[in-house]
Write a structure and sequence with these properties.
about 600 residues; mainly beta; Immunoglobulin-like; 5 domains; five-stranded antiparallel beta sheet; five-stranded mixed beta sheet; about 10% helix; about 45% strand
């Protein structure tokens, strides 16, 4: 038995030498299929982290205890065989090399509509399915040594690396060839088909995989791309180094590029078709409405007969294994034209305006506009003509529309006018704490709307009345704004307003004191805006003016008048009125004479 093992071991060693030169694979090798030039940046672990000591591995192997029921001599022969096969340099790597990439990356959509990437993987030599190939993987070989693989134990194919249909010493080659190969999980990659690089969109750990019979790991990752994308997966080990890139899944959901929708008159035979891109096979679902027969189809193109006049709604849904897309459309069958509305209904004189109409009916439809003699141009066949009116008023216009099924005349009116123009605002001056009524001289086409703003110098501060009445609350030069709008435009005018102060008489003085029979100057202490005018009256009628001559009332319009004080003892009244443009103030006064001036002889 021992001699046979030695012979087999010799064959295995020679096989290993031819296959891998007696050493482990390079930890930073990155292989990408020649058909795909997109690259993923390599992850290179440090040398200390991805190497193992051969002596430590042999010590681990030597300390392994045989599984229950396994012949001790067989156990020792298997350990000796693995010890002989271990290379001098042991390097931990992700799965690298021919036949070690994922080749079954695929896609499916579950019953809830969630899209999934799926792939499977079986790490060669990882007989105990713990994610790394090492000394522990001889245990399953020992437990099933000599068993012939059949239908009842097909899962043992995991251990049959040699492919001879029996679990034996030759299957130790799987451990030796892949020793220290480590699978921690997979990185999910995606790429725009037109770009040159992959992007990492997620990871799936080995522990998240479902273990199937025979040690096969089934992985999945949810995806929902918005547009065409390419996907691949890349194995990585516990140090983050990456292995072989998988086959590329080209995610190509359907795209509806263009459509040919049936149209015409009743009795016409038409074809509904679409130009669609995406992975085949693509399923078609036409819903064409009650105006055609047939009105449903699952063919890429369908020939139909137009059977009923009118407007009908339809849609096309295309789907493949990735997703579905839907596009709605209208079918118009033999419908004469009709105009529902025309806009706008008004225009500003001298300004160009674009007209448009809401029109229904089967295309093609021709149009003929007439805007009357005051418009330029007067006529147009354009869909949206640009017109200018040269006078204000109501203009009678029309739009005539025609298709092969009939015609329609739509009469409408366009009202034109002038935008507002503010000539002036009056008054421009007013008295403090008095009311004024503001008004504007406006040119243009009424009616107008008004917005007055007085910036905190009136009560109220603003108004929308045409001629607001306000109380002036701040003195001095103020600034206001008036905005006037009509159907044809808007005008804004800033205006100045002066808030003045009417006269206020504080005091009346004269120079004679209480002495009679003399001339005295009278004057006032008065506040207010200048210029001012004065109206004096001194009630001296009938008083003695000297020499026993009676006096008359005395008046003056001077600011400082001179009056003769009566030549008799008593009280004599008077009053003064001071005026300016903002108002007036009147105050009475009394001159008391208690001493007469003696004229020297």
């Amino acid at each position: 038995m021992r001699g046979l093992f030695i012979l087999i071991l010799t064959i295995i060693i020679m096989t290993l030498a031819a296959a891998c030169g007696g050493g482990g694979g390079s930890a930073d090798a990155r292989l990408v299929p020649e058909s795909d030039s997109r690259q993923v940046a390599p992850v290179t672990p440090s040398p200390d982290s991805n190497q193992r000591s051969r002596q430590e591995e042999l010590a681990r192997l030597d300390n392994l205890e045989p599984p229950e029921g396994v012949d001790f001599a067989l156990w020792n022969d298997l350990k000796a065989a693995l010890a002989a096969l271990l290379p001098e340099k042991i390097v931990c790597t992700p799965p690298i090399g021919e036949g070690k990439s994922v080749t079954d990356l695929d896609f499916y959509r579950d019953e809830e509509g969630i899209g999934w990437l799926t792939w499977s993987y079986q790490l060669q030599g990882d007989y105990n399915v713990d994610g790394i190939v090492d000394v522990d993987d001889i245990t399953p070989i020992a437990e099933h040594y000599g068993e012939i693989i059949g239908e009842e134990n097909a899962w043992l194919a995991l251990l049959d690396f040699s492919g001879n249909g029996i679990v034996d010493i030759a299957d130790m080659t799987g451990i030796a060839l892949n020793y220290a190969c480590d699978l921690a999980g997979f990185t999910v990659l995606s790429s725009d088909p037109d770009l040159a690089e992959w992007e990492v969109t997620g990871t799936v750990a080995r522990t998240e995989a479902e273990t199937l019979e025979g040690g096969i790991l089934l992985f999945s990752s949810a995806i929902e791309p918005e547009d065409w994308s390419d996907f691949a997966v890349l194995a990585y080990d516990t140090e983050g180094a990456t292995g072989e890139i998988s086959n590329v899944l080209e995610y190509r959901q359907p795209r509806i590029i263009s459509m040919n929708v049936p149209t015409g008159k009743v009795g016409d035979i038409c074809t509904a078709s679409a130009v669609v891109e995406g992975e085949e096979p693509i399923a078609y679902d036409w819903t064409l409405g009650n105006g055609v027969s047939p009105n449903r189809s699952d063919e890429p193109s369908v020939e139909v007969e137009l059977v009923q006049r009118g407007h009908f709604y339809g849609h096309l849904t295309v789907s493949n294994r990735f997703d579905e897309r839907r596009q709605d459309f209208n079918i118009v069958i033999g419908v004469p034209p009709q105009v529902t509305s025309v806009e706008p209904a008004s225009a500003t004189v001298g300004e160009r305006v674009s007209f448009s109409a809401e029109i229904s009916g089967s295309e093609p439809i021709t149009r003929h506009w007439n805007f009357g003699p005051s418009a330029f141009p007067q006529n147009s066949d354009e869909a949206s003509p640009i017109v200018e009116f040269d006078d204000a008023g109501m203009h009678s216009c029309s739009l005539s529309v025609v298709n092969e099924y009939g015609s329609y005349l739509f009469n409408f009116q366009v009202e034109t006018g002038y935008a507002p123009q503010i000539v002036k605002v009056t008054p421009a001056r007013g008295a403090y704490e008095q009311q004024v009524q503001l008004q504007a001289e406006v040119l243009g086409t009424g009616p107008f709307s008004y917005r007055w703003t007085m910036n905190y110098w009136t009560d109220p501060l603003s108004s929308v009345n045409e001629m607001p009445v306000v109380t002036l609350t701040e003195e001095g030069t103020q600034l206001g704004k008036l905005v006037i709008e009509n159907d044809y435009g808007e005008a804004t005018k800033w205006f100045d307003f002066y808030v003045g102060t009417k006269p206020r008489i504080f005091r009346i003085l004269w120079t004679s004191g209480t002495l009679g029979n003399v001339c005295a100057d009278f004057f006032t202490q008065v506040g207010g805006d200048h210029p001012m005018t004065f109206e004096w009256i001194f009630y001296t009628e009938g008083a003695n003016g000297g020499n026993d001559q009676p006096m008359s009332n005395q008046t003056s319009n001077f600011a400082v008048p001179s009056f003769l004080i009566p030549n008799e003892i008593g009280d004599f009244d008077g009053e003064v009125t001071v005026n300016n443009e903002f108002g007036s103030d009147t105050q009475e006064f009394t001159v008391t004479v208690d001493e007469l001036f003696e004229v020297p002889v």
